[in-house]
Amino acid sequence: MWKSVAAAPADSILGLTEAYKNDPNPHKVNLGVGVYMDNTGTTPILQCVKDAERILLGVEQSKSYLPISGDPQFGRQIQRLVFGEGSDIITNDRAATAHSPGGTGGLRIGAELIKRFRPEAATWISSPTWANHRGIFTAAGFPIKEYPYYDAASKGLRFEDLLATLNQVPAGDVVLLHACCHNPSGVDPDEDQWQKIAAVAADRGWLPFLDFAYQGLGVGIEADRTAVTAFAATGVDFFVASSFSKNFGLYNERTGAITVVSPTAEEKNIALSHLKATVRVCYSNPPAHGGLIVKTILSEPTLEAHWRQELAAMCGRIVAMRQALVDGLAARGVNQDFSYIKRQKGMFSFSGLADETVAWLRECKAIYVVGGGRINVAGLTSANIDYVCDSIAEALRQ
Ligand code: PMP
Questions:
Q1: Does ipTM come in above 0.90?
Q2: 315 and 261 together in one domain
Q3: From CA 245, how far away is CA 113, in angstroms rounded?
Q4: Does one domain contain both 21 and 137?
Q5: Catalytic residue at 246?
Q6: Does 15 score more than 90 pLDDT?
Q7: Are 311 and 283 in the same domain?
C-alpha cells in the first residue's frame, strides 16, 4: 500500500526536540518545545492535580462511558472559567460545552461542526499562527485565508491592517483568533482593540472562533478572558476551544473543551444536538480522566484556590524570565532593543533573532530555537539564563 507513497513531512517542532534529546552537549537548552517547564527544567504535575487524582481514586466507581459531550458538571465549570461567574451567557443558558481530547480536539470538532452548516465558508487565520491551525481547518475541508497580524518591524500588532482585512471578510466565513498569548508571537490585542474586533464581527457577520489555549498564563485567569468578554457582549454566535494542557499541566491526558455560544437558549439546544452528533462520529465520547481532574479541582473551592496559586506561579515565572532575558542581554552590552520581549504575553516570544543566529545558536551552543526565532520563555531557568544571554550576546557580536 505504501511503496509508491512519499513520506509525510515530520513535525518541525517535535523534530527539534528529537535533535535536542540526541545532542551530547551538557549545556544544551531546549527553547523550542511548547510545554511549561519549572525552574529545574522539568514539566511538573501540579500538586492540585495529584490531590484531585487521590480523591478520584477513592470515589470513582466505574469506567463506563461518559455522555457524548462529557460530564455535565465539567461543562458547567468550564463555562464559569471561560466566561466568568455571573456572565449573561451562563445565566441565559446560551452556551453548549463538550469535553474534547485537548484543545486540538476542540478545534477539530468545532471545525467539523461548522463545515456541516457552512460548507462554502473559508477560515481566516492570523499571519503567522500556530502551524496546526492551518492543518486542522484544512483537514475539516476549509479553504484557508490569512489576516495580517504580527509586524516584524515594530514587534507589535498590525492592528489597522488586521481591522481593515476583517472588515472585508464575507459574512459566514470563520475567523480564528488567539484569545490570549498568541502563539508564536506573544503579541495580543489590548481590551480596546478586542472590542473593535468584536464590533466588526457583529457588523460583518463572520463567525469568531476563539482558540483559548493559555488562559491564566498571560496576565491571569480573569484578565486573559478579555477577548471572550468582548465577543460575549455583542450577543453574536461564537466558538471557544479551551485547552487544559498548559494551565492544568494535563498535556498527555488530552483535556480540552469546545464551547458553542448562541444568541438564545433555544438556538443553543439545536447547536448542542449537532455538537453531540459531530462528536459521536469522531470519537463517540471523550476520555474521562483529565476532565474528571479538572472538574474535581474546579468544583472544590480549596482545590481551586490551590490551582489558582500554582497557575499564578507558572505565569509569574514566565514574566520573571522575560525580564531576566531582557536585562541579561542589556547587561552584556547588546545594544539592540529587546524590551518588547517583556511586553509579550504567555509562554512564547518572537525573539527577533534572525534565522542565521538561530542556526548558529543550535550548531555552536546547543541552544534550540524554532525557525523564525520563536522561543519558549519557560525553557529559561536560573541555571541556564546566563549561558543563553552570553550565547545570544556572542552571536549578535559576530
Ligand atoms: N492552540 C494553540 C495556539 C496551541 O499552542 C496549542 C498547543 N500547542 C493548542 C491549541 C492545542 O493544545 P492541546 O495540546 O490541548 O491540544
A1: yes
A2: no
A3: 23
A4: no
A5: yes
A6: no
A7: no
In this predicted structure, what is the pLDDT of residue 305?
A: 98
| Residue 104 beta carbon below 6 angstroms from any ligand 1 atom | yes
Would you state the pLDDT for residue 10?
Answer: 80
Å from CA of 28 to ligand 1 middle? 25
Residue span of the structural domain in which 283 resides: 65-299
Mutate to test the pocket of ligand 1, among 104, 210, 247, 294 (most ligand atoms within 8 A of CB): 104
6 C-beta neighbours (distance < 10 Å), count: 6
- Examine the domain organization and report whether 37 and 78 are in the same domain: no
% of the chain exceeding 70 in pLDDT: 100
Contacts of 184 (CB under 8 A, 6+ apart): 128, 129, 130, 348, 350, 370, 372, 374
76 and 221 in a single domain? The answer is yes
Q: Are 137 and 106 in contact (CB under 8 A)?
A: no
Answer yes or no: 211 catalytic: yes
Give the burial string for 166-182 (b: 16+ CB within 10 Å, else e). Answer: beebeeebbbbbbbbbb
Domains contained in the chain, number: 2
* Residue 211 beta carbon below 6 angstroms from any ligand 1 atom: yes
From 33, 133, 245, give the residue whose CB has the most ligand 1 atoms within 8 Å, as the site to mutate.
Answer: 245
Q: What is the DSSP letter of 289?
A: H
- pLDDT tier at 133, thresholds 50, 70, 90: very high
pTM for this one? 0.96
Together in a domain, 338 and 353:
yes
Task: Answer whether residue 398 shows pLDDT above 80.
Answer: no
Q: What pLDDT is stored for residue 9 in this prediction? A: 86
Whether 12 has a pLDDT exceeding 80, the answer reads: no
